[in-house]
Amino acid sequence: MFFHITLERNMQLHPRHFGPHLREKLVAKLMKDVEGTCSGRHGFVVAITNVEDIGKGLIREGTGFVTFPVKYQCVAFRPFKGEILEAVVTMVNKMGFFAEAGPVQIFVSNHLIPDDMEFQSGDMPNYTTSDGSVKIQKDSEVRLKIIGTRVDATEIFCIGTIKDDFLGVINDPGAAS
Amino acid sequence: MGRKSLKGKDSAPVNKTRHIQVDSSDSEYEGFVDERSPASAKASGKASSDLKSGKKKVSFESLKTGRKTSFETPAAKGDWGKGGKDFNAGKAGGKGSLPQATAVKPRLTEIELKLELELPKNARLLMDCEAAEILQEIEEHKTILSEDPKVKFPESFNKVLQYTKFGGHYINSQSARKVLETLKINGVNDGEICMIGNICPETVEEVYALLPSLKANKHKNEGPIREVLASLAKVKSSK
């Protein structure tokens, strides 16, 4: 789920950047440091929306670097257990399939795929129902439920299921079961 | 220091087949004997913090056999020193904390949605469509900024933008948000509102199947949810 959050960070700046464009340099450094990173608390920081406040800089003793406390707002993405997501399948194998929802990778094990779907190997490996009516292959869109998450420094990885009601391949905007 | 037995079942004096290491130092749990598997090191890291607080989580056998009985608790109560230094199997010691997780399983969805309240108070949950609008604006700004070669933006940004558009069901997000806000009075929390907005369910049954936490107040919120779904259908863009 996405959320808009205010965060604070202490940014260190080398004296060579001091000058009339100090603020721009600080913001650029902040963007470089923060966008695209992950944390356990707020998940994946997608983009900074605005910088609210830059506090007074404090010169660090011994090094000459200056630390600025920066308050900024950003859009973050974090998957929660129990959340329902729509994802695009990226890889299918006999253990299950991998799907992607934004910055997040989700794995659905074959144990969490309905029993009536069987793995078919071949050029385009896929899971198909016995009557061939529903197929899950690369680039299919599926609606799944997150049942577990793991957050790394640079990415979030989840485990999902499609074994419940109203989950599975999305054919039309309405039919997913 | 409280000594809690996990399931409260007192087992007979234990058959000490496994070897026992009693650590003399209270603080060094990482230095315990068995690093049987890499997973155990991680798991025991978890357990060590519990032990530092003086709680006892000793149910080794239960995990192996799948039963949820507490094991060695009387022994633990008596024999070990202060903070429970029995780490005969790092694996088991670490997993001592796991049975608690499985016991809570049925109520998982409720808890997960309530987890959002743990976010800092200034966090505002966004539906995918709202996030799409914000990111679209940022992208427009960035295209201007990208003329400056020093400014780069991460590749993940495009991925996320695409993902938010992928779920773009509504003509505009404000109308969708307006409709969904009316559910707040009926005890539906922010997380659930966003999920309904993202999923775009067709029927009330779908809502209850996908968000079981709402079932608790079914008598209160069924009517409002039905109305909201009808209003949302009007705001949906044809896709």
TrEMBL record, chain A:
Q: Which residues form the RNA polymerase Rpb7-like N-terminal domain?
A: 8-64
Write down the InterPro entries for this protein, in alphabetical order.
NA-bd_OB-fold, RNA_pol_Rpb7-like_N_sf, Rpb7-like, Rpb7-like_N, S1_domain
Pinpoint the S1 motif domain residues: 79-156
Keywords associated with the record: DNA-directed RNA polymerase, Nucleus, Transcription
Q: What's one GO BP annotation on this UniProt entry?
A: transcription initiation at RNA polymerase II promoter
KW Nucleus (keyword) present:
yes
Q: What is its main location?
A: nucleus
Q: Which domain of life is it from?
A: Eukaryota
Tell me the protein family, please. Answer: Belongs to the eukaryotic RPB7/RPC8 RNA polymerase subunit family.
User: What is the purpose of this protein?
Assistant: DNA-dependent RNA polymerase which catalyzes the transcription of DNA into RNA using the four ribonucleoside triphosphates as substrates.
Query: This chain belongs to which protein, by name?
Result: DNA-directed RNA polymerase subunit
Q: Which lineage ranks, top first, belong to the organism behind this chain?
A: Eukaryota, Viridiplantae, Streptophyta, Embryophyta, Tracheophyta
Q: Which gene encodes it?
A: LOC103721385
TrEMBL record, chain B:
Q: Family assignment? A: Belongs to the eukaryotic RPB4 RNA polymerase subunit family.
Q: Which UniProt keywords apply?
A: DNA-directed RNA polymerase, Nucleus, Transcription
Gene name, per UniProt, is LOC103716802
Segments carrying the region annotation (Disordered) are 1-99
Annotated RNA polymerase Rpb4/RPC9 core domain ranges read 118-239
Q: Which GO terms describe its molecular function?
A: nucleotide binding
**Residues making up the signal peptide according to the UniProt record:** none
Q: Name one GO cellular component term.
A: nucleus
Please name the PANTHER family in this protein's record: DNA-DIRECTED RNA POLYMERASE II
Q: According to the UniProt entry, which residue ranges have a biased composition of type Low complexity?
A: 38-51
Q: Which InterPro entries match?
A: HRDC-like_sf, RNA_pol_Rpb4/RPC9_core, Rpb4-like, Rpb4/RPC9, Rpb4/RPC9_sf
Q: What is this protein called?
A: DNA-directed RNA polymerases IV and V subunit 4 isoform X2
Compartments annotated for it: namely: Nucleus
